[in-house]
Amino acid sequence: MRWLITGGRGMFGTDLALLLQARGEGVVAVGSSSCDVRSLDAVRAAMRDIDVVVNAAAWTAVDDAEAHEAEAFSINATGARNVAAAAVESGTRMVHISTDYVFDGAATTPYGPEHPQDPRSAYGRTKAAGEWAVRAANPDALIIRTAWLYGEHGPNFVKTMLRLAGERETLTVVDDQMGQPTWTRDLADLVLRLLADGARGGYHHGTASGQTTWCGFAQEIFRLAGLDPDRVLPCSTSEFPRPAPRPAYSVLAGNSAMRDWRTALGGYLAVQSSQR
Length: 276
Ligand SMILES: NC(=O)c1ccc[n+]([C@@H]2O[C@H](COP(=O)([O-])OP(=O)(O)OC[C@H]3O[C@@H](n4cnc5c(N)ncnc54)[C@H](OP(=O)(O)O)[C@@H]3O)[C@@H](O)[C@H]2O)c1
Description:
This protein has about 280 residues and is of the alpha/beta class. Helices cover about 40% and strands about 15% of the residues. It binds NADP nicotinamide-adenine-dinucleotide phosphate. Keywords: NADP, Oxidoreductase.
């Protein structure tokens, strides 16, 4: 099979490309300079002789999107629509990556795939519009919502915590937002599994099992790295105001049996230390 990954140079796209290469698949991973998803012609040209396209291209700067919603929309919604339309034209199966930010974050029980969207941030609105655009143009596309990603090929929370551990004696981390830290490698594996299993078009959730807060996540990073987790102190979201509102509750249900976030984190840290 021949795969195209738009946004293929990003944190998730790079891990997906590496997994596909390791499995002997043909893969073309394109960044914005060679395939800007805002251009339908560019997307059409990149999709020649492709069996599966995974759209991992996105404006992911959540806070900056508040002041640049139109630019974020052109990538997250119009860009997603372009990939979906070109995939239909060329008979290419499509996977689109979306986010927990399409929900309101006010629930107290996990969000199922069919829960109504109600985004509270500009980023969430643009990603929700992208989901609608993909569904309308290409009902056969898989839309996989994920959350709290970390991976080797991008800046992420795990790297930030380990860097700060070397700079400060104690850290304060928000303890009133609940979610599921998810390794990009596990998400890449899920994409392949869903397609191999013949998953139907529509919404799927792709986050690790279990749940925690950012503070709990940070404490586990410290523990697994052999550091004292008591150096991580809890605080509330109101103590760290940000331009974009953060969902208080981002736990997704209906996941396709992804492993527990703690086990995955241990795997990620083992890979990191073996590369040092
Ligand atoms: N990170 C998270 O915690 C998280 C959580 C939930 C969902 N997601 C979703 O997961 C997907 C992957 O996220 P990620 O963390 O891997 O993001 P990322 O590292 O920021 O990668 C996104 C990529 O999109 C590309 N891109 C930006 N504008 C583009 C354009 N106009 N045309 C083509 N490509 C463009 C960028 O490519 P260049 O570098 O070449 O410009 C970048 O490498 C996104 O859909 C994101 O919304 C992420």
